[in-house]
Amino acid sequence: MEGSEEYDLIILGWGAAAFSSAIKASELSGGEMKIAMIGTGPLGGTCVNSGCVPSKYLLEASHRVFKTEHPKIAGIRPTKVEYSFKEIMDGLKRYVEQAREKKYELVIKGYENVTVIEGLGRFLDRKTVGVKNSNAEKEKILSAKKIIISTGSSPYVPEIEGLRETQFFTSDTIWNLDYLPDSFIIIGGGAIGLELGQALLHLGSKVAVIEAMPSLLPMTEPEISYMLKDILSREGMEFHTKARIARIGRTSKGKFADILTHDGKKRVEAEEIIVASGRRPNTGYLELKNAGVKTDQVGGIVTTPKMETSSPNIYAAGDCVSKKMFLETLAAREGVIAVSNIFGEPLQIDYNSTAWAVFTNPQVAGVGMTEIEFSRTNGSCSCRTFYLKDLTMASIIGETDGLIKITVDPKNNRVVGIHILSPNATDIITEGSYAVKYGFTIGDIISSSHIFPSLSEGIKLAAQSFLRDISKMSCCVE
C-alpha cells in the first residue's frame, strides 16, 4: 500500500509466541529479515506478567507456609510461620519485573532487525496492517509479505447479573492485591481457579469454588479430578459443583453469589470474588474479515497443523489460535512452526503429545488421550491406575495422595495417554510425552531403568500393573 512502511514479516503481539517467532525468523535469516513486532501492555505478554510466572511464585510461597504448618513426617512438629502478604506480593512483583527485563526486554534489544512498535494493530487488507496508539495522532501503516498473528488471550468474564457492578479480580488483576482478604469466592474450577484458590487457602484465606461442570479439571481422568477435590476439601476448600450463579451482589461485610444447585438455592458469601472461568482469544479488534482470516465461535483463529490461517501468507500462533490447550511452551512451539513453514520447512504441530499441567499441590499433569477420549474414537482401550500409596518414595516423603493412570491401545500395547496426580508431576510427565510422541509400548517403559526410590518410578510401576498385581511385588522387580 502506498505510504506504508515495508517489512518482510509483521508479528501482531509481543508475548511468548511472538518472541519465539521473531527469534526463529532472525536465526533462519541470519539476522537479515526485517521484522515488525506490534503489541500493547507489558512486553512478554501473559505468561511472565500475569500468568505462569507470578502464579507459580505465589504458589511456592504459600506451600512454604502450609507445609511447615502441616508436616507429614513423624517427629516433625507443626510450626507457625510468620509472614507478610504484602512483602510476598512485593517480592513477586520485583521478580516479574526482573524476569520481563532479562527474558524479554534485553533479549529483543539484541535483535537489531526487529522493530518493536507499541499499539493495537488491525488488518486493512491481507498484507497491510494499521497501528494506532494513544500517543499518535494518526494511524501508522505497515505492509509485509508474511504476517503472524500472536495476540494472546484475556480472562473471560461471563454475563452474570450484578457481577460487573460488584467488581471482581481476574488472573490479570489479582497481582495488585497488597493485603490478604479473609475469604474468596472463585468462579471456575479449572487450572487457574484451583491454583489461585490453593495459594490463597494455604496463606490463610477461606476459599469457595463455584463450578458449573459436575467435576473439576474436565481435561483429565475422573479419578484424578475426584481425588484432587478430596485433597483440597480436606485442606479446607469449599466446593459447589454443577452450580449456576443466578446473581452476585454486595453485603454489609463483603460480597455474595446466589447459586442454583441440585440441592436448591444457596448463598455463598466472601470478602472478594475472583473470576477464573477461562480465557478468550484477543482477536476482536484485529478486523480479521479484511484479511479473510476465519475464526471459531469465540474468536479463536482456525489454523492448519502448519499454523496457516485461511488467508495465504498469514499464520497464527499462541492463545489466539482455536484449540483446547493454552500453554506458554505450546505458544512458543507454534511460533517456531509458523516461521519454519514461512521459510519452506514443512513442520506441523503435534497437540496430542503436548503435555499440560496444573501446579496445585499435589500437581496434575497429562499428555495424550484419556480413557474416555480413546474409547470414544476407538471403541475400547486398556487402562491401569497406580496409586501413590504403593510407591516407596511417596511413603517416605509422606505424600501418598495421588495416582498415575496409563491408557494403552489394546491392539499394539502402545501408550496413548498418561495422566498424573503427584508431587513433581510436572517433571515426571516428560516421560509420558516421549511415550506418546514416539509410540512406546508398556514393555518399553518397563524395560527402561527408573531410579529407586523416586516419584518417577511410579510410571514404571503403572506400566507393570498391566502385567501383575503390584501389591504383591517386591521393590525393583522387573
What does this structure look like?
Strands 1, 2, 3, 4, 5, 6 and 16 form a seven-stranded mixed sheet that branches. The mean pLDDT is 95. The protein is globular, with a radius of gyration of 24 Å. It has 478 residues and is of the alpha/beta class. It folds into three domains: 5-155 and 280-342, FAD/NAD(P)-binding domain (3-Layer(bba) Sandwich), CATH 3.50.50; 163-277, 3-Layer(bba) Sandwich (FAD/NAD(P)-binding domain), CATH 3.50.50; 356-470, Enolase-like, domain 1, CATH 3.30.390.30. Strand 17 (356-358) and strand 18 form a beta hairpin. The protein contains 13 helices and 21 strands.
Would you summarize the structure shown here?
The protein has three domains: 5-155 and 280-342, FAD/NAD(P)-binding domain (3-Layer(bba) Sandwich), CATH 3.50.50.60; 163-277, FAD/NAD(P)-binding domain (3-Layer(bba) Sandwich), CATH 3.50.50; 356-470, FAD/NAD-linked reductase, C-terminal dimerisation domain (Enolase-like, domain 1, 2-Layer Sandwich).
Work out the helicity level.
25-40%
Beta content comes to 15-25%
Q: What best-fitting shape do the alpha-carbon axes yield?
A: globular
Could you tell me the CATH topology label of the largest domain: FAD/NAD(P)-binding domain
**Structural class of the helix and strand makeup?**
alpha/beta
Instruction: Give the helix tally.
Output: 13
Distance between the first and last residues' Cα: 68 Å
Low-confidence stretches: none
Question: What gyration radius follows from the Cα positions, in whole Å?
Answer: 24 Å
Query: What is the tally of beta strands?
Result: 21
The top-level CATH class of the largest domain is: Alpha Beta
Averaged pLDDT: 95
Q: Major sheet, described briefly?
A: 7 strands, mixed
CATH superfamily of the largest domain: FAD/NAD(P)-binding domain
Per CATH, the architecture of the largest domain is 3-Layer(bba) Sandwich
* Count of discrete structural domains: 3
